[in-house]
């Protein structure tokens, strides 16, 4: 079967510049509604991936996201949200983008075309068989990502891919391919739109589910979140109040003394046994 880049196919809409603002917004929204349904279809693959990530992370393994452009930025974004949300060290979920951190804000010429660079960057971080490498590429053809996956898999490391094209090269390199087929973009080839939205959804699903299974959530609460601003201190205080049936001021003192909702609740219960 010939490989067809759906991500590069002409938009289903035309004469965009002649449409009203309302028409443009409604049509973008209509396309966006396809994304969640496309993600729904790949839940079995996401489940397979998370089920293999969790035991690896329990043994000290890490997740590495690899991508270029929008895909790389979304990997870095998801990785950067894990420490404040779940109180995990920033070394456990790592986003690597072709061209390095400067590429987060500025395009870096030819960075994504270097097929060896990604594996070099993983080796610099002492990648091992407990780790997981997830390549993200809307087109499924990015050399930086392909090379990293190929080398990681050859070295016995769990690999997965997220792409928006069926039967893409990236899927052939990954042990667990996730192909989220969202169709042509509203603006032809602009994969920051539906493809990017779907990637964000899948990355959220992978890390949130993994963190829950690693015990970083209690009930439905982020009991290990970092207390990095007043809003989060207030949220954490109310969690402690609810859990221990204490007044606000006492709950806040406990929270600030022990640094997280979980630690505050555990310490209070330990100190007030019997």
TrEMBL record:
<feature type="domain" description="SIS">
    <location>
        <begin position="53"/>
        <end position="216"/>
    </location>
</feature>
<keyword id="KW-0119">Carbohydrate metabolism</keyword>
<dbReference type="InterPro" id="IPR005486">
    <property type="entry name" value="Glucokinase_regulatory_CS"/>
</dbReference>
<protein>
    <recommendedName>
        <fullName>N-acetylmuramic acid 6-phosphate etherase</fullName>
        <ecNumber>4.2.1.126</ecNumber>
    </recommendedName>
</protein>
<dbReference type="Pfam" id="PF22645">
    <property type="entry name" value="GKRP_SIS_N"/>
</dbReference>
<dbReference type="GO" id="GO:0097173">
    <property type="term" value="P:N-acetylmuramic acid catabolic process"/>
</dbReference>
<dbReference type="GO" id="GO:0097367">
    <property type="term" value="F:carbohydrate derivative binding"/>
</dbReference>
<feature type="active site" description="Proton donor">
    <location>
        <position position="81"/>
    </location>
</feature>
<comment type="subunit">
    <text>Homodimer.</text>
</comment>
<comment type="function">
    <text>Specifically catalyzes the cleavage of the D-lactyl ether substituent of MurNAc 6-phosphate, producing GlcNAc 6-phosphate and D-lactate.</text>
</comment>
<dbReference type="GO" id="GO:0016835">
    <property type="term" value="F:carbon-oxygen lyase activity"/>
</dbReference>
<comment type="pathway">
    <text>Amino-sugar metabolism; N-acetylmuramate degradation.</text>
</comment>
<dbReference type="GO" id="GO:0009254">
    <property type="term" value="P:peptidoglycan turnover"/>
</dbReference>
<dbReference type="InterPro" id="IPR040190">
    <property type="entry name" value="MURQ/GCKR"/>
</dbReference>
<dbReference type="InterPro" id="IPR005488">
    <property type="entry name" value="Etherase_MurQ"/>
</dbReference>
<dbReference type="GO" id="GO:0016803">
    <property type="term" value="F:ether hydrolase activity"/>
</dbReference>
<keyword id="KW-0456">Lyase</keyword>
<dbReference type="InterPro" id="IPR046348">
    <property type="entry name" value="SIS_dom_sf"/>
</dbReference>
<dbReference type="GO" id="GO:0046348">
    <property type="term" value="P:amino sugar catabolic process"/>
</dbReference>
<feature type="active site">
    <location>
        <position position="112"/>
    </location>
</feature>
<dbReference type="InterPro" id="IPR001347">
    <property type="entry name" value="SIS_dom"/>
</dbReference>
<comment type="similarity">
    <text>Belongs to the GCKR-like family. MurNAc-6-P etherase subfamily.</text>
</comment>
